[in-house]
Write a structure and sequence with these properties.
Blueprint lengths: L13 H12 L11 E3 L10 E3 L33 E12 L2 E7 L13 E7 L8 E5 L10 E7 L5 H8 L5 E9 L10 E7 L3 H12 L7 E8 L8 H10 L4 E7 L9 E2 L4 H7 L8 E6 L2 H7 L14 H5 L7 E3 L1
Parallel strand pairs: 9-10, 9-13, 10-11, 11-12, 13-14
Antiparallel strand pairs: 1-2, 3-4, 3-8, 4-7, 5-6, 5-8
């Protein structure tokens, strides 16, 4: 559950706060280091605060690496339109955390690519023997759109989630029905000067899709800020990949992690994603060419941006982002 904190007396390092705000509002520079920032924020569930520790010096710049074979000639599996569901074979399952697995599905031909665009998702379908109607759920692959012959999904198992439970019961060689792509936000290189990604749980997968597209393109200079909320440390998905981006592009990518149930030695954010945190690390709403993306559980949408009315209707902007002065046009809800 996510909440909004009450007013408080700030207890952060002023110089560090200015450093973060400088990063959030200015263009890339030749070098930048994150300082100590403490936001003494009382969380709704009781007394959390934000602490961002001094970062180590970034490693020498290298290209953003991914497990992608060289692209070979082939068909696109998912064409949209009137195309029906396609059954894909599960090749492998990898345990990522206590409740999350990575699933690799093979495309119909070893030379095929998925056909997904930035940003888009796939619709999955499953109907068990005791079910009157099939279950339909959208998922955003974490594999690159140019990956040849396969696609990867990260799926967290929820106690009352019939589709996520089915995923976690699947064994290699079984099949699942997919359809797509489901178009979301059409992002092109340098479309925005700075984008902010506010994610909770598996809502980080479309954010990672945006990051992949931006940072694998040497012509794209978009700046990215990620604010990622989770229950515990083991729930932080794709952290290794985001740390690689921070080390490779320290002037253009920053990630802030917030935990509801942090371990004793945790030095990231504690409690909920708050108004004070977003005011500090996000690009200011007065900047013209920015975009804020939101994806997470219903409680997070309610607190941060307000919910969507439907997949086609973004609904009215409300919550923290509206209070901070962002406009309807500056926010997109996945």
């Amino acid at each position: 559950m996510y909440g909004v904190t009450a007013p408080f007396e700030p207890a952060y390092d002023t110089d560090a706060l200015q450093s973060v705000r400088h990063y959030a509002t200015e263009g890339p520079r030749s070098s930048w280091n994150m300082g100590l920032i403490v936001a003494g924020t009382a969380a709704l569930a009781g007394g959390g605060y934000y602490y961002f520790a001094t970062q180590t010096q970034p490693s020498p710049k290298a290209e953003f690496k991914q497990d992608i074979p060289a692209k070979a000639p082939g068909n696109t599996t998912f064409k949209g339109g009137d195309q029906g569901f396609i059954d894909l074979k599960l090749e492998s399952v990898e345990q990522v955390s206590h409740n999350t697995k990575k699933f690799r599905f093979l495309l119909p031909d070893s030379g095929d690519v998925s056909g997904l665009k930035i940003a888009s998702a796939l619709l999955t379908k499953y109907q068990g023997p005791e079910m009157e109607k099939p279950i339909l759920r959208p998922y955003t692959p974490v594999s690159d759109e140019d990956a040849v012959g396969y696609l990867d999904l990260l799926v967290k198992k929820y106690p009352d989630g019939p589709m996520s439970s089915h995923f976690h019961d699947m064994q290699p060689s079984q099949r699942l029905s997919f359809k797509g792509p489901l178009p979301k936000y059409p992002l092109s290189p340098n479309q925005h000067d700075h984008i902010a990604l506010i994610a909770g749980g598996t809502g980080v997968t479309p954010m990672y899709q945006l990051c992949r597209a931006i940072f694998k393109n040497p012509e794209d200079k978009t700046k990215v800020t990620l604010v990622f909320g989770n229950v515990g440390q083991d729930d932080i998905l794709l952290k290794k990949e985001f740390e690689e981006l921070e080390n490779t592009y320290p002037n253009r990518f920053r990630a802030f992690y917030v935990l509801n149930e942090p371990p004793e030695n945790w030095q990231g954010g504690k409690g909920f994603i708050t108004k004070e945190l977003l005011k500090t690390v996000l690009p200011e709403p007065k900047e013209e060419n920015i975009k804020v993306f939101v994806c997470g559980p219903p409680g997070m949408y309610k607190a941060i941006s307000g919910a969507k009315k439907s997949p086609q209707d973004q609904g009215e902007l409300s919550g923290i982002l509206k209070e901070l002065g962002y406009s309807q046009e500056q926010v997109y809800k996945f």
